[in-house]
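One chain is below:
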Amino acid sequence: MTLGPPKRELLMLLMALLLTQGDSMKPSRSPLVTCTCQNPHCRGPTCRGAWCTVVLVREHGRHLQEHRGCGSLNQELCRGRPTDFVSHYCCYSSLCNHNVSLALEATETPGVDGQLPLILGPVSALLALVALGALGLWHVRRRQEKQRGLRSDLGESSLILKASEHGDSMLGDFLDSDCTTGSGSGLPFLVQRTVARQVALVECVGKGRYGEVWRGLWHGESVAVKIFSSRDEQSWFRETEIYNTVLLRHDNILGFIASDMTSRNSSTQLWLITHYHEHGSLYDFLQRQTLEPQLALRLATSAACGLAHLHVEIFGTQGKPAIAHRDLKSRNVLVKSNLQCCIADLGLAVMHSQSSDYLDIGNNPRVGTKRYMAPEVLDEQIRTDCFESYKWTDVWAFGLVLWEIARRTIVNGIVEDYRPPFYELVPNDPSFEEMKKVVCVDQQTPTIPNRLAADPVLSGLAQMMRECWYPNPSARLTALRIKKTLRKLSQGPEKPKVIH
């Protein structure tokens, strides 16, 4: 079937209806799902809508074109075939359209609910190899253009995705800005899947309620592989969604490489592949290590930089929405080889954009860690429709992380053993009611050691903790103010030593 010029406008109208980006529409009554977005209307590699779509069209004088996107308007388009489409398909779960192809079935129309689409099997592996080869050639060509002083089509903005700790490693080169999908932080989905299936697991380095973390090898380089348990599937979806739709590359945010859902040993495994940091979490690091005041400041400042980057909204085509973490704690902060921190675990994060005033909470039933919950969360007074409320709970938790760092800092030869916040008041795994009594009813905060007053840096940290723990959430410091104050402390009489 070919379309003459008179029908082209009709085709584009129908395609726009079926492939409308859900996140640009008013919220649908149906739960929103994340879909792969590859069509002329896309703003990034994914979109959100009431359902996902794949549409196959043949325009006048052209080959078949396959478009992917989101639907949020007329569901009748999914039930009956628009006559100007060669074929189309709708599905209703997150990312369900990114591994579906209609291109090989150009005369038959797949059913919507009862018939399965043509899923790429061996063909996907071949396409993956072709994609990687094309990506490599494109990468070389773009580098040559840059060397001749030409401007990248993406703009010379903030998409600098070098894995800086790996220097000129293959991984660092692979994550160069030329390999990105535009506005997001991730590689193209097909490339992500190829990378994931080239990773060999070496050793398990951590376990928790979420699942396991392994150290893996990809072409001789260490990567971290977080394998989610089946009951925490929504956290995997949420992290995958955020990393692939938001510009998150930052020295103090854990570097994302790939995400993959795969079948291994007759069971489905959900993988999230990130940079590997051998020191582990800040929680682990503080168990083993005592700190000099300047190292304590270095850890605190770098963590604050990561939190400030999450909380800020960056406007423009290369921007990002504001993000609140909602589960900030020392176990979710990693220590890099240069002894700076980076923030990890975005499975509970919420996003907000001022332009649309849309608060994206996700649909994860998991709650945060009780020990780090702010009083307004524990007494269920938090305004869940107000994005600022979530940022204020992050600041409360950040104050507790500062307290953990300060306890392990040496002042006049004195240092204390590591303890979690409220260790003397609640058991190891406190209940919601136990934390509520301590924090809301008794209005307790962790005891700040008197010895911190003897050091100008640590006395500054102590005052900052108090201002993170105000009962009135709106009176607490902002992440940006914390970051600026810590940087000012680091520029005091004794400059911090750079530790390698």
About this structure: The mean pLDDT is 78.
